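User: I want to check something. If I give you two sequences, will you return the structure for each one separately, not as a complex?

Assistant: Yes, each is folded on its own. Here is the first sequence with its structure:
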Amino acid sequence: MKNTLFKQAGFTLLEIMISVTIFGIVSIVCLNSYILSAKHISLLNENQNKNLLARWKIEELRIEAQEIEDDKGIFPQPFENYEWEISLSDLVITDTEYEVEYIPYKLKILNGKNDFEVIMPFIKTSTGESLE
């Protein structure tokens, strides 16, 4: 007759504790990667929005073809939390062949977190006329 009283069935407490610990460590690593990826996606979306809005404002100024002055404003919905600001840049470009100095405009896109600056293709000569 076989002794079935001591037959091992199931897992021991030590095996369960080890498997739960391994599962916990893997879960923490996966959760950390997910949170880091979500932050990166949010940052990339923010930068993409700022780049898009800067291009939008530059094209809008090109179409209007008017004298650009230091100005600022807010974008329309759904980008109402973004502000724009145009000013002359500190950069001076000198054309030695024609002896003319050009000063490009600087466009800033602001939203409170971090600023996005772009040097615009519009320039102002030392005589005061705007060129593209």
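And separately, the second sequence with its own structure:
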Amino acid sequence: MIKTLQIITLLIAFFSSSLYAQRDSFTANDFSSFLEAAYIADATYKTEDAIKSVLSKQGYELQVLRQVDGYSVAFIIAINRMTKHQLIAVRGTSNIENAVVDVAFVLVEDKITGIDIHQGFLLSARDIYEQVRPLLEPGYKINTIGHSLGGATALILAMMLDAQGYNVDEVITFGQPKVTNITGSQTFKHLNVKRLVTPKDMVPLVPPVDPVNLMDFSIFWHQGTEVFLYSDQRYAVLTGMNSMLRAASFLNDVPSEQHLSHHFMSSYIEYLKPKLENPIQVEYKNDFSITDWFGSSNNKTP
């Protein structure tokens, strides 16, 4: 038992310190950028005119709006000629029940990135990848944005483009489920990934960490910096194992309307607004202990 806990402690130290390139804190300007990304992610669920309106306010021109055949996602490509950026935003589903229940978490090898990726997300990402490549401007930086299953696809798309030498600048996702394993996350730890989550959104937590598989590098694992949004000015920054253990607080939760609403883009927008002035960073404290998985040391046989 002691040896097992020692190994897990070493793993926690490794994952927390080396798996991610993290930002320690964020400014009001950062949250303003997150809010702009949130407006774009929200607009992907709306009409073409609404999408154009949101994009134009941020200096972007809509180039492509397209549904991916056979999948629940759609995507847009937009261009900002002043800053020489192209934006790819992927629409997923705002239905948390579909996101959690209908998703089969199976990892398959991807030849473009060289890592194992969630099978369902990978298929839609490949489709979008083939469609956007001919439309990418030489010398332009690429940003990807997505919500829910669209966030997962947006992250995979960024990894594909990065693996093929494109200049991926930033990835911002909202309520994004896990897409790859520990090895895959390590391979693309250099990407600038920001994952925004609300307190009761269950989608970023699936599938939950199984303690039996902690020694298995093929388990699903998040990458990038997790920005945990409270409803007021507060936020927390989580990475590595601390981010993964956040799922533990949901083990005894019964799904409710609150969980559903916390996955909507409207909730993400409302949680970002208070942080446009004087955002306050706090420490996130997991209410779950490793020893809860393996029993208290007081139960050891003398």
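Because they were folded independently, the notes below concern the second chain alone. The longest strand covers residues 61-67. The radius of gyration is 19 Å.
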